[in-house]
Amino acid sequence: MPATVINANRLTKRYGVHTVLDAVDVEVQAGECWGLLGPNGAGKTTLLRMVIGATPPSLGQLQVLGYPIPAQATSMRRRIGVVPQKDNLDPDFTVVENLRTYASYFGLKGPVLERRLEELLAFAALESRRNAPISTLSGGMQRRLSLIRALLNEPELLILDEPTTGLDPQARQVLWQRLRALRGRGMTLVLTTHYMEEAQRLCDRVTILDQGRILETGPPQELIRKYIEPQVVEVYGVGLDDWHRTVAASLVERSERVGETMFYYAHDERALLAALNQQPELTYLHRPANLEDVFVKLTGRELRDGQ
Amino acid sequence: MDNNGYSADSSPLPPPALRWLPVWRRNYRVWLKLVGPALMGNFGEPLLYLLALGYGLGTFVGTIGHLPYLVFLASGMVCSSAMNTASFEGLYSAFTRMDVQKTWDAMLTTPLSVPDIVLGEAIWAATKGLISSTAIMVVAALLGAVADWWALLALPVIFLTGFCFAAMALVVTAVARNYDFFMYYNTLLMTPMMLIGSVFFPLQEMPAAIQWLAWSLPLIHTVELVRPLMTGLPLEQIWLHLLVLAGYSAAFLALAIRLCERRLLA
Fold this sequence. Notes:
Distance between the termini of chain A: 38 Å
CATH class of the largest domain in chain A: Alpha Beta
Helix content of chain A: 25-40%
Largest interface: A-B, 41 and 31 residues
Oligomer: heterodimer
CATH architecture of the largest domain in chain A: 3-Layer(aba) Sandwich
Order of helices and strands of chain A: EEEHEEHEHHHEHEHEEHEHEEHEH
Number of domains of chain A: 2
Radius of gyration of chain A: 22 Å
Number of helices of chain B: 10
């Protein structure tokens, strides 16, 4: 297995005059979990589609597991697993029929398949639902089924497009735990997500994409240290503007207003907290800086509506 | 589940020429789940039509050529049923899998590619056409409307016909935005083709322009092969008819693949 699992060089995608990806360079190493972050319309899904050979680049070179893509995408897809953004499980089939049918697309059958089915049903905690129709599964179960469906061919690279979007917090935790287990076995993971907490917990490295360009790449903690003061205090309530102007502005390095909330960023937050304790009408949340602060700082505060 | 025991070279992937087979098998398994009502429709509908039209209308019509109307109609319905069944599968059912259920998207994250999917869908639609036409032939035989065992030679022609109409339907599906779009195809092409395809009445008395139009479309070529095979009349210009059906099949399959690639791999 090559040490570099994905190698993208100046990848560009244009639809008419609209540039969706603009000269993107990516390098994903074997065994790492790489997260692709970005607002709606940033080009995340386009980039993933390119990696699986579903969208031909307008310009640039791409290699996945050493195969030139899209030229040898069929051979490459034997060795990867894909969990799509929206579950496309077969509604006419039960859990195990879904797995068998998908396995047939890889030519998998016989005792090898039977053994893998049992292992994977156990991995997803779906053994007792093996003969259940898809419509009777919860959202979390369907996602887990999509996950093990992508593992049938024992992929070296697993690609997940927004794996936990729409799941409740418990289901999300269960899925995270499974993904960490896979990473522990040495599988290379690539995922897109809107949830910065998810990226921070799972990913060794993240890339922040906006309007088709890469803004930053690095380990989450490194990016947080690079861009954000370590302490963050969020404040809202009656009289916020006056208090900010007269008291708070001079107590911290940096502040920003978003809607009804002030965000204060500082290396030493003690003076600010002391002042806040004199203001019972103001509510505050004191927390360490996180990836969301980085994301918002780099991509801006304005609302992005998907196109 | 350790990664090391698996190498891509040992993957038992079928050879490229057979990769349509898992696509066909997936549709077949879904069909099997509802095989009862499906076969009921396949046998019941033609039985009712043949009885009602064959005997009811046949009383007024008498014979066409030397054939009793029931016999004429039965051989025509075997042909039109292959067309209708394969077309419906290539339009509505294929569109459901492509656009609504995203079954094709799932297939495209595996080693299958667009030509495998389109070919698998076309062969499956042809299979369904064959099933429904065979059911009609059985019903016709029970009603005494089939001459002899030579009629079995019509089945390969029926399969080719189903494939031909499936390929044409998949071209329409590849450019469809919704189910309503198919009404244009049904009303502007399928229904006229059936009405001037020598299914319900012969073409001889029609204006020349209509006859010319009918011969430029595939259905009448099926009828010209299947009706003699089912009724014992002499076969004429076999290769011409087969060539038209094969030509339509090849051209529209290639176009369907091209258009589906444009739609799915943008």
